[in-house]
Amino acid sequence: MSEPAARPVLAVVGRPNVGKSTLVNRFLGRREAVVQDIPGVTRDRVSYDAEWSGREFVVVDTGGWVSDAQGIVAQIAEQAELAIAAADAVLFVVDATVGTTDEDEAVVQVLRRSKKPVVLAANKVDDVRTETEAALMWNLGLGEPHAVSALHGRGAGDLLDAVLEVLPKSEGEYMPVAGPRRIAIVGKPNAGKSSLLNKLSGQVRSVVDAVAGTTVDPVDELVQLDDVTYQFVDTAGIRRRVKEASGHEYYAFLRTQTAIERAEVCIVVIDASEPVTEQDLRILDMVEEAGRAMVVAYNKWDLTDEERRRYLQREIERDLGHVLWAPTVNISALTGRNVAKLGTAIAEALEGWETRISTGKLNAFLGKVAAAHPHPVRGGKQPRILFGTQAHSCPPTFALFTSGQFDPQYVRFIERRLREDFGFRGTPVHVEVRAREKRSDRA
After folding, report:
1. Burial 231-270 (b: 16+ CB within 10 A, else e)
2. Looking at residue 102, what is its pLDDT?
């Protein structure tokens, strides 16, 4: 099945430990790629959705490229070369504090053979003094070296502008196309994800065992609910401190993360018979940060009594207040109780996820809200909303152009009012404030 987007692809390559994953996280604006101060942490090709200046593209993080490698290091290098071949453009990251190495020269040869557009990023330029060392990277013959500090964000905006110049224009934002919608089933180990997929599909599609962690690779299955066909993906249970794990658990986490990124709706399965855990909350946050529509399924309802249900309601009010916008279904994957109701919840979440508000209607709403509840005065001045627009849907993301910085509490207030007036059931809502620069800042 083809992917539901025609967005350009940027491969991020370079030798080990030059800061590729840190730079990817800087592009995304959140910590997604696994980062550690040792070479070789990233191994597979891992894709992430990114957006800059209203344009969406896919960033592919790769392992460090090493020539004449053996064993797993050779496989990592091969994955990096495959990423280059599949990409529309390449971001080549070098360490400005080390200078040009033989390994860098070897990567340049691979890049020249690929005939792909290349943007050169001289990373770890944390101050003006290091900029001189970055300029020496001209000798690689790949054009201007863009000085950047992935750790501190210095020069990241200019680098992204350069990336957009070489990426082909996409045909549009992320929007579903004909074909089954992708639904990921996620949750902590032993919450009943595989049992749910088996009940939905009417067959033993996933191995089920009382031992937590039975599922490792995502398992796909076409399922029909309310006369609509969906592509369901069962994923591995996400464990605590998985970024410190090694072996199959580490890779299972990466594959689950990719399944969330590629899904349109995530069903978060929570074991209702046990107290809500920190792992459950982490998974809810992962789905929200990925910008995916969400349905919460409280499983093992047949194992709960009145007292447990009363405690569960208190836990929801105390810990899940930030995701009360997600539709909930109380199910039993074992007996099939209410499993069919997931179809209605999924359709509701998808509708909210794809909702778009016209600019005129949005600014009328913002004017009404600001008149009734203006932003508090800060430093003798009262920042105002000059203009607002919905940057894109999937998830609904709004850009507010303002006369000054807004308090985070006021931004959350606007998000809450957006939900009250326009619904957005089942989807995260992102509000970005773009404050007008002062004249002194422009000089």
Report:
1. bbbbbbbbbeebeeeeeebbbbbbbbbbbbbbbbbbbbbb
2. 83
pLDDT (tens digit, 9 = 90+) per residue, 298-342?
999 999 999 999 999 999 999 999 999 999 999 999 999 999 999
Any idea what DSSP says for residue 376? P
| Residue bearing tokens 């360490």 | 95
| High-pLDDT (> 70) share of the chain, % | 77
8 Å CB contact between 371 and 364: no
Higher-confidence residue of 46 and 281: namely 281
Quote the CA–CA distance of 284 and 295 in Å, as a whole number.
10
DSSP 373: S
Nearest to 42 by CA among 68, 70, 69, 22: 22
Token pair for 8 = 């350009």
For 435, counting Cβ atoms within 10 Å of its Cβ (0-12 exposed, 13-18 middle, 19+ buried), the class is middle
> Is residue 263 within 8 Å of 181, Cβ to Cβ?
no
pLDDT of 223 above 90: no
The distance in angstroms from the start CA to the end CA of the chain is: 51
Query: Is pLDDT larger for residue 369 or for residue 28?
Result: 369
Residue 378 in contact with residue 408, Cβ under 8 Å? no
Give the torsion sign (CA, 302, 304, 310, 312): negative
Q: How many CB atoms lie within 10 A of CB 328?
A: 17
